[in-house]
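Supplementary Methods S3. Input chains for the assembly prediction are listed below.
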Amino acid sequence: MRAVITVVGKDAVGILAKVSGCCSDHHINVIEVTQSILQEMFAMIMMVDIANSDIPFTRLVDEMTELGKQNHLVIHCMHEEIFSAMHTI
Amino acid sequence: MLNGKDILETITMIQDENLDVRTITMGISLLDCCDSDVDSMCRKVYDKITRCAKNLVRTGEEIEKELGIPIVNKRISITPAAMVLAACEKRDAVKLARTLERAALACGVNFLGGFSALVHKGFSAGDRELIESIPEALAVTDHICASVNVGSTKAGINMDAVALMGRIVRQSAELTADRGCIGPAKLVVLCNAPEDNPFMAGAFHGVGEPDCVINVGVSGPGVVRAALAKAGPEPDLGYIAELIKKTAFKITRTGQLVAQEASKRLGVPFGIVDLSLAPTPAIGDSVAHILEEIGLSQCGGHGTTAALAMLNDAVKKGGVMASSHVGGLSGAFIPVTEDAGMIAAARSGCLRIEKLEAMTSVCSVGLDMINIPGDTPAEVISAIIADEAAIGMVNSKTTAVRVIPAIGKQVGDELNFGGLLGEGPVMPLNTASPAVFIQRGGRIPAPMQSLKN
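Predicted structure tokens for the full assembly:
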């Protein structure tokens, strides 16, 4: 089971470390990361495997949202299914 | 394989363009709750609804959080209440309405539809009692929606029911005059009513449906508008139609996913996805604004019907491949008070009821959420219903009337219902009397279109 974490906000030191640290705390494996920085705006898309996660997915969503708020970032954490449904036939 | 562009597109749709799943509606059959004793019947009704739907809201909220897509409403539709009432010796319809209200509150849903009667060919046991009780039932409840089907392509139009409904709509407004005439905002008069419609106020659970079923209504006018805005004014209408189709496909896929997920988690069969563009009063979630994006200076001007016809068709073509079962109303909705663009057009006088009537011949539903002067006679309301029913009957489509007589108010005054029901001005009507036509009663025969066999 996979999920997509997206992070958007002003670039700062350690964003990737904080998000991947939260994943690691919950035994969530990061499969793929793409990130770009455009005019100081940081945008990252992270594909993660939540099969072995030690918390329910809804709690992970809450934790990521909170992590975003603490760091002045917008973090979305959503099941991969919604993207697959919308963009693949 | 997913790419970053697709992921960001989905997030933009949800975050900035109001993409949501408008409703998960659980249809529940109450045919097994019939009883000659009204109290036993009410007890069975309450037990069955609260048993079937006890996890509906919680499951909806879980799916919402996990998929990251808002699911705005969780609702229930039931077997037309007149059928359940028919077996009772003492047909106390208001008692049933109060029971339904309690059940709706216990389940936490925001509307329960199906306080309904199907009388397109005539009245059977329970129908008259139920219809006569509608004004009181809607006044003493907050979550109950009523509907009456007065015509069909197969049966023609029951003009006795049409005459009756004109009076019922007025009485509903009068009984709730102290609360902004909210009563008739929860009452719709239909022709060719679909039996699996998840949208209120016309939702009921048809007799051909399974015992319990999950139907989902999608939305997304804001997403369509944003896609058209990005395309700009240059592309021709073939391109625009194609763009709407592609967008509708994406919107509907989310609805299909939510429907499957809800069905699996609740252990209830999946019924249909209703492919509808359902507006809300929120800025950026308007069907009128899509029409304006297509190229009209304001909704209601000449060209509106053609633009709406194209929009409605493209939404269906895009959506139909995205879902395994399509049903309900499926098309663009044009409820005036629930659509920021329609409200503005009605206020400016650009959108009039005659144009709305023309629009109803090419899109789903009908004259919806329109405030009319408080002194409108019942027979004029009946005649509005008859006109709409005729459009539905002849064109083999669903049409409906949900007008709100604004008691004590005149053209230009405003009614505010709050929430999804919105607000809007009282619109002028043609007041030439149709009294003799309505008083004739009887049945308008089914048209030639009904003879398809």
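Chain B has two domains: 30-191, 219-450. Residues 30-191 of chain B form a domain with the Anaerobic Ribonucleotide-triphosphate Reductase Large Chain fold (CATH 3.20.70.20).
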